[in-house]
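Final report, results section. Input specification for complex C-07:
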Amino acid sequence: MSLDSDQIADYIHDSAPLLFAVFDREGRIQSANRHTEQLLGGRLTGKTLQDLFVDFGGHLSLEALAATEAPQRLDVSVLGGLPESYFVRVYALDGSYLCIGHPDTDSPKQLAEQVLELNREVGNLARELAKSEATLQHLNDLKNQFLGMAAHDLRGPTGVAMNYAEFILDEAGSSLSNEHVGFLETIILTSQRMHQLVDSFLDLSMIESGNLRLKLQPCDLGDVVHESVRSNERGARQAGITIVEELDDTLPIIEADDGKLIQVLSNVLSNGIKHSPEGSVIRVVGSHNEQTAIVRVIDQGSGIPEELLQTISQPFATSGRSVREERSHGLGLAIAHKVLEAHGGKLEVEQTSTQGTTMLIRVPTRQGDRKEQVDA
Amino acid sequence: MTDLPTSAELAVQRKRIEEIYESYLAHLIRGSRQACSEVVQTLLDESISIRLIYEDLFQRALYRIGSLWEVHEISVATEHLATAITESLMALTYRVMFARNPVHRSAVVACTVNEHHQIGGKMVADLLEMHGWDAYFLGANTPIADLLEMIEDKKPNLVGLSVSVYFSMPGLLDTVAAIRKLYLDLPILIGGQAFRWGGKQLFEDAANITYIASLHSLEEYVLQWESSSRVPG
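Structure output:
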């Protein structure tokens, strides 16, 4: 069996994945095979070389191509798709031109190989990333575990030291010298600080390990403010600072964990005291709208440096503006931030300048669907 | 120790995968990554064993696609796309996989020089992770020097070497020889599709080199290690 020229012509016309077009003397397509018409999306009779190939410069000509010995790589303007590269030769015939080309298979192959290689690399990087994330999570869990254990074990002894010192001061204070009374007061003060720090560690460990549980109940926002101010009065007095409450008469009863909210406001107030100058005033201003209760703590401190604003709610990041020689562990605002987040609220720095800072506490008045989540 | 499903649970899970296998295969052949991804996510949501997903879904489908390619029913591009999609699907399991309790054993897994098929090796590394191992996967076509450097750095309990194409066998022999020169007793696991065509006999007399025929065999090997706390014989 042997193929005759008609069979070959039929194959080229009907099936071969080749560019095949015959142009007339004026450069118009007289006929084209099926593959070429499929690429371009329809009948090609009467079309030009520029309709067939991408030709931004308008330099392509049948004469020039016919004068070139080697096949030229040209891009076919594929209908609805990316241009496809073909190696094309043009033959000048009597009164017409034959344009024939085969696909450039090397470039797509290289592209495919590179894409596959990239896919492998992305897959491996995703694996490394997931592995690193899991390792970090594991280390963080260990850290929280340690923090919780250490804080728990320290809480007892500091409590005992504080209580006995208070007991001695109460029972025998009158018979002690001023110097010894001073020693006991120092023990009580430092024990209290250590106690607070240990409590903060425990809170943080609980929050970070996802074990923060809120006991939601109706609570009076005014009472929360009073209690928070009261717990900070001693520290404020020692620093020569006055705390002033300015509350709406109609502050709402909100649905919240009152103990945790007192902690939030106390932490914010305590932070304000640490960073306010002697003789200044801290205003605690309460207001509300239908959905949100708002408390502003407005101090006259030296402000928060701009570079610290982004990290102020992160553990161990301090607001960096202390006016006294007080150590700050950067836990108070981080805990306040997390507790408010658990309530669906927010802690923000509303404004800060060298004249003072306004911290804004927002809490939703109702917990709605959140109740079950936080109570669980 | 890893909390593994019981035989009865595995049987139920296998049945579940069997139910969706054909549609998954069809999606994979069509190159529909999104549809495949939904299937895998559904199985993960149903807490189907990742090892079963790897073996009964990913591996089975890829072997089937390989067979279809061998008889010219699908193109090489379809096969490559199926492999690429499968690799991206493996990433869906990582959240669960890497959350295992560590057992403080580590492995370095690599595909040898000139071996460009990495999915089998990656499955080996992932299965070790599922069992709490710290498995470092170096990827396809790993130069011997890089592998040795990693072994020196991580001091693993074992090394896994994967070869998918029989022509990569000389690369495997060279790699094993290079490791042995420096680490006389380090257990080496070898495996991969290349061994379908032979090659096991090349390692029969070698000490501490174990041929692993399947992910199931690997799991048995790992469990044996866990139960005896020493290198399986």
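The interface with chain B takes residues 112, 115-116, 119-121, 123-124, 126-127, 130-131, 133-134, 137-138 of chain A (CB under 8 Å). Residues 130 and 262 of chain A are 39 Å apart (CA to CA). This concludes the modelling results for the funded period.
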